[in-house]
Amino acid sequence: MPEIQPGERRRVTLKIPRELYDKLSELIADTGFRSVTEFATYVLRDVAAGGKLDRKPPGLSESEVDLIRQRLRALGYIP
Predict the structure, then answer these.
(1) Is 0.90 topped by the overall pTM?
(2) C-alpha to C-alpha distance for 69 and 63, rounded to whole angstroms
(3) At what angle do helices 18-27 and 36-48 cross, to 10 degrees?
(4) Mean pLDDT for each 10-residue chunk of the chain (79 residues)?
C-alpha cells in the first residue's frame, strides 16, 4: 500500500446499487448536502456514533433529519 503523506485524507470507495444512489440523490435535493457522498458520510457517521451526533447536517431541520432516518429505516439501512 502506498505511503500516506501528512495532511493527505485517506478515502476508500463504497459501492452501492445505482438505484439506491439515484434515490438518495433525489432525497437530498435542496437539503444543503452537496453530494450523495457527503450525505452518506453524514449518515454513516451518525450510525457509527449510535445515532447521537451533536452536530446538525448543513441546511436540515430536526424534522427533516427525522424524516430521512425514517426513510432509511424503511429501506432497511438503519435499525
Answers:
(1) no
(2) 10
(3) 90
(4) 63 90 91 90 84 61 85 83
